[in-house]
User: Fold this.
Amino acid sequence: MRASIRFAGSALFAVTAMAASAQDKVITPHDVVTLKKVGEVQLSPNGAQIAYSVTTPQPATLPKMETLWLTNAGQAGTARQLTSGDGADSLPRWSPDGKTIAFLSRRKNPIKLHGESPIPFKLARVETRPELKEAEEQDAPKDAKQENQLWMLPMGGGEAVPLTNLPGNITTFKWSPDGTKIAFVRTDTDAKAERERKDKKVDDYRVDFDYRFDRLYVYDLATHTATLVTEGDRNLCDFDWSPDGKHFLTRISPTPRLDDYWRVSKIQILSSTTGQVEQTLAEHAMSMPIHWSPDGAYLSYSKMTERSITGVPILYDVATKKEQIVGANLPITWQHGEWSGDGKHLFFSGVARTTGVVGEVDLKTGAIKVVSEHESTLRDYEVSKDGKTLVICHGNLGPSGRSEHAGGR
Assistant:
């Protein structure tokens, strides 16, 4: 890698002391299960700050405890907690202009789909989802469990505000490139008749029928409207926006069954407004995360090998419509690709035997050059817009009996 590339090694650093004193001691199972975990790192668009989550282990009888934190890149001792409250907060994601962080939260939500709501929110094109039509026509059950919903926190000051309040759980989301919309994935839930049937203990289950699909929705910040994009019997496994916001690169499986999720999925380009399939790029995809490069020139995804046992990362040239295998020059299991904001640099994380590595891809040849190695679990990483800085979140047990989660490049 170029000498100008730097590490922000002290930028993200949380330490949980496990010893009651400064002296070393034998690590116990309790010490291990009570370690705090840092993850979900994301560098701000200007590269100055890093948002991340911290999970604190809780007894099984208590709700999950997860909070959002912020630190200055490259400056130790600047971490500060962003959120607190009655619900777990996770997956912080900067808006493209860096003025807002969207996140998922299980905190108490004032939005109402039925009746008057203190915060505007409505649905569109949900006629095929009976549980959502019912939510628009009647109040939510009083005992309904609060699941993950979209929230937004202004970085200039002010309280976090909810964007959605839907039955069921939102699992992930991504900002549109222009910052006017947020695409999110929600899992289908039971309609009223099905809930009542289960409440009466008529709980027979038909195998391979009545699936609960993961579906893609798009929330418009101007109109406060969430529109269903993927209808029909298809399960959304992963997605990414095109740079112009007109398309989605997706990985779709026929059902949410594990075998289908891992082994029977396709790479397809969909219209971001209608959800219609515009192009199928791979009939037999693997589960590696997919990406559309920010400059629109490349797509990255994975395909099954000829024996249909393992998969290989693929770089697809949009102009020439040609594929090339990525990272075949090294005996490393590649796992997760990430583009720099300018679309000129593609990185992959992987495992070389027991060592976590990050490497940069030669976009012309597909070869990868390792730029970072870590003798620990690589939890997450993020690339700066110019590709010169990586924020790496990893964890290990040090000789002093401490859990260290550090970021750097």
